[in-house]
Write a structure and sequence with these properties.
Elements (H helix, E strand, L loop, with lengths): L1 H19 L29 H12 L2 E6 L2 E6 L2 H10 L13 H6 L13 H14 L4 H22 L9 H17 L8 H16 L7 H5 L9 H30 L9 H10 L7 H33 L1 H14 L15 H14 L8 E2 L4 E3 L2 E3 L4 E4 L1 H5 L29 H4 L14 H18 E5 L12 E2 L3 E2 L5 E5 L4
Parallel strand pairs: 2-6
Antiparallel strand pairs: 1-2, 3-6, 4-5, 7-10, 8-9
Protein name: Cytochrome P450
Organism: Capitella teleta
Keywords: Endoplasmic reticulum, Heme, Iron, Membrane, Metal-binding, Microsome, Monooxygenase, Oxidoreductase
């Protein structure tokens, strides 16, 4: 009976919404496909991979069009020109985040308290500044990132060696490696996968990805929040995520207090948790524990772990099938680094093929295909089309990275796209580099871009230095059109064989 009541309530509410807003307004002039009454284009969009549907629609509707999903109307941007104009040239006008019909984001972020979900206000700027300062992306900070990463990558290498050249699924060890980089940044220490903090952080990250897809399961809660009273599965997940956030914060606070006792007199405290605690204690800071909990879970855990671990996992699937690419990577690392020392970030400038492979991985995988929705703060013209103020804007990075009108053979993995005639990496001004925005662009560019790129380079180069990666007993497609979707794209489970290289 509960299901029947729920369906009746949805139908009545939908009819009311349709009746209330049945007439088009003067601002609804963007190209769009006619949808169903009430439901709009909901049944025309591939819910698990909506970016693929939007890429097809771009061929008919152009690079700026609208789509209606239930009561939510989105503006979709697909071409490089439209995306660059919106995010960079007119970035301040698109720096807002949705708060209307965004129930899931509101719950997960504790009333939009994370950097990802906050409006571009003073609190947002303060939190970004704190994280930037502690991550220390430049100068000596890169050495710290390198030290953190290499200690953990050594664990990754030993885990691969421990498989004794048998077929195995590398997903867990890749995830643990990336997650422990973030744990070290936050708390100055690593954790094993069976420790309580690690288990809860992993549960939060994986649950949030499943529950947050902009057009997947659970989107009905954004329009009809009252469905939470009728046994909605996504809402049960959301409730668990809120509970997990509080538990993670409590455990991290305890860990930070224990860490305080271990600091030597005069020693610099480089832990991000400490910086956030200090900011909270400042008079007039405007920060609350909600902000800190959300920054740690939404921004650091999800933002710093999900995309990088998914990219590296997919890299192993790709590289096991592309022996020629693997041999070129190995030749370069052998020539520049050799076998007697570990890879360093200073090697990067002398390893153009590895850099090009990293760039091609970011393009090919596009693990964050739509990014989080932006909101237009005023009426603004993009590529000759007026985007009304208050519009929720989806940026289809996936289409830009696989646009057949720009990229030759976009669904083939070709690092050479990012190499010049002289064998060096093409400069940032090169069209291929300009058409690559895996971390977004403009005022809301990803906070951890430099950290993510550094980790990708170190892991790729280190694995190629030590191993031949071969296909294992279980296979899965690595074609980006066939990846699994949540908030980020990911490969289905597969196995590899890691044969240790024997070098003189």
């Amino acid at each position: 009976m509960t299901v029947v009541y729920s369906l009746v309530a949805i139908t009545l509410s939908a009819i009311w919404i349709w009746w209330k807003g049945r007439g088009p307004t003067s601002k609804e002039c963007l190209p769009h496909y006619r949808g169903w009454p009430v439901f709009g284009n909901l049944f025309q969009v591939r819910r698990e991979r909506s970016e693929l549907t939007f890429s097809e629609w771009t061929k008919d509707l152009g690079p700026v069009f609208s789509v209606k999903l239930l009561h939510n109307r989105f503006v979709v941007l697909s071409s490089f020109e439209a995306i660059y104009e919106a995010l960079v040239t007119k970035g301040n006008s698109f720096s807002g985040r949705p708060t209307k019909n965004a129930f899931r984001a509101e719950v997960i972020s504790e009333h939009f308290s994370s950097i990802l979900h906050l409006q571009a206000n003073q609190t947002w700027k303060k939190l970004r500044m704190i994280c930037h300062k502690k991550i220390k992306m430049y100068d000596t900070g890169m050495k710290r990132i390198e030290a953190i990463s290499m200690n953990i990558i050594q664990f990754l290498v030993e885990e691969f060696k421990g498989t004794n050249q048998t077929s195995f699924n590398p997903k867990d060890v890749i995830y643990n490696t990336v997650m422990n980089t973030m744990m070290t940044l936050l708390l100055g220490k690593t954790f094993t996968k069976d420790e309580e903090l690690f288990e809860k952080v992993m549960e939060f990250e994986q649950g949030a990805i499943r529950a947050s897809s902009p057009s997947g399961r659970g989107v009905e809660l954004d329009v009809f929040p009252w469905l939470r009273f009728f046994g909605n599965k996504t809402y049960k997940t959301l409730k668990r995520l809120v509970e997990l956030k509080k538990q993670v914060w409590e455990i991290m606070t305890e860990e930070a207090s224990r860490g305080d006792l271990l600091l030597k007199e005069g020693e610099e405290d480089v832990r991000l948790v400490s910086a956030l605690r200090d900011a909270l204690a400042e008079e007039g800071s405007g920060l609350t524990e909600k902000h800190l909990r959300s920054v740690i879970t939404n921004d650091i855990v999800i933002g710093g772990t999900a995309t990088t671990s998914s990219s590296l996992y997919l890299f192993l699937n790709i590289i096991s099938r592309h022996r020629a690419v693997q041999m070129k990577l190995q030749e370069e690392v052998d020539r520049i680094v050799g076998s007697d020392r570990t890879v360093c970030l200073t090697d990067k400038a002398d390893m153009p093929y590895t850099q090009a492979t990293q760039l091609e991985l970011l393009r090919y995988s596009s693990v964050a295909p739509l990014t989080l929705p932006h909101t237009s703060l005023e009426d603004i013209v993009i590529q000759g089309k007026t985007v009304p103020a208050g519009s929720n804007v989806l940026v289809n990075l996936y289409h830009m990275h696989h646009d057949e009108d720009f990229w030759e053979n976009p669904f083939e993995f070709q690092p050479e796209r990012f190499l010049g005639d002289d064998g060096g990496v093409v400069p940032a001004s090169h069209p291929n580099r300009r058409h690559l925005m895996p971390f977004g662009a403009g005022p809301r560019v990803c906070l951890g871009e430099a950290l993510a790129k550094s980790r990708l380079f170190l892991v790729i180069a280190s694995l190629m230095q030590k191993f031949d990666i071969l296909p294992g007993a279980v296979s899965a497609p690595c074609d980006p059109r066939l990846l699994e979707h949540g908030l980020v794209l990911s490969s289905a489970p597969f196995q590899i064989i890691a044969n240790e290289r024997l070098l003189n």
